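Input (Threonine synthase):
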Amino acid sequence: MNYKSTREINPSNVKSSTFAALHGLCEDGGLYIPEKLPDVKLTYDELKDLSYQEISEKIIKLFFTEFSDEEIKTAINNAYNSTTFNDKNIVPVHKLNDKVSFGELFHGRTLAFKDLALSLFPYLLLLNKEKQQEDKKILILAATSGDTGKAALEGFKDVDGINIVVFYPKNGVSPMQEEQMRKQLGNNVEIVAINGNFDDAQSAIKVIFSSDEFKKYANEHDVMFSSANSINIGRLFPQIIYYVTIYVNLVNAGTIKAGEEFNVVVPTGNFGNILAGFIAKKLGIPIKKFISASNKNKVLADFFQTGTYNKNRDFYATNSPSMDILLSSNFERYLYYALNEDSKRVSELIKNLLSGGELSVSDKELKNIQNEFYGEFANDEETVSAIKKIYENYHYLMDPHTAVAYSVYEKLDEKHLDKDIHTVIMSTAHPFKFPAPIAKALGIDDTKEPYAILDEVSEITGVKFPEKLTEVRNSEIRFSDVIDKADIQKFVKNYIKNLK
Ligand SMILES: *Cc1c(COP(=O)(O)O)cnc(C)c1O
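Output:
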């Protein structure tokens, strides 16, 4: 399978999957998408007896056609096993009641859904490097709103030939997320806090990736850049797998029948998770409606309601920090499909967004979009209330991102979401990553030290303190750099100069 840019109008300008995954972003600033999506219609019958790993093989093969079956199998078995995930189903489904289930995406090493892609991504990247006969050192630059950083660090730690630098907003991640990163082990990792927000970090990295001067500088030092952010196809496509397994699981559990449609509500930031679901639908998974759930940074919810995406607005630090994003990078890929793969139209709209901070689709386009997608938001108070309510009624503890999604589910009326159809809420993190909102919901003093809060939460709820967090708790801080957002590029140059 070949890949092209979302902005490319010349049909012959395509790249191999290995090239696309190795380089991350297209030269023209667009995002790689398959030249044509695989022409398959997955059915329950062919999936029902397959393990997570076997379904993974099926999906990855469709998108990375240059790898042998053996290479894919090895990568998958390294990525998804009992040391990398603490649940044998990898993604278990928790049925709340007849209307709602939770797809638990947080059983990996860093307790967030990013583990599902980032456990596999390093193996794919090494294969891509080999196939492209690339012997330069790879430098991964990643911007994180908390969870990508840690999951990427765990995925890449001590991998030969690869170094990784992660930038996170100093006051924009939870204390647990920050601890997890600052205590990261590995000899090829670097973690830097910036005075700025996630968008600042992501933009600075995008500039580096698309700058000729930077490329030349890296080249002179025998280094090439790659990205671990969800713009990379090696990050995006592994996320299709869990939509497929959740469907199979729902049917196996008798929650829905084979072929019966279900809805998904996805706590959304960079639009990677929900986009993977959309592609899963194109491969035959019967998903009826996609609900994009936002926190107070509701740029996407506004788009799905009004047809205008406007990033010129105040930025809020919320209690669901992994969604504190105003410039959602995978949204461009969604636009491409929503606008019938019209790259010219995509380029035009993205140009408006980049120059004026705003893009609008036509009323007709919006109507089409709303048939399949809708967006809504929940603020911090609503998030805490949802955690409290679901805990009190069901003894099920949601993390704040999941709670945003649940809150949005409750807010939507029948016009925008048919609630006779079963709905899966994508549960994107373990609640223990976000002590403060959980404390508020359970009536615990939230000014206490985070670990003390978690001990109390564990005692009250009976939720076991996750082993992976105990490991973090007992290790030393290794990284303390804080730099200004304007100095990110200088930092990267220096880092390259000192790479051995
Ligand atoms: C990254 C993240 C999200 C947002 O996912 P996108 O793919 O960026 O839309 C939501 N919740 C949590 C906990 C996350 O880590």
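Residues 238-252 form the longest helix (15 residues).
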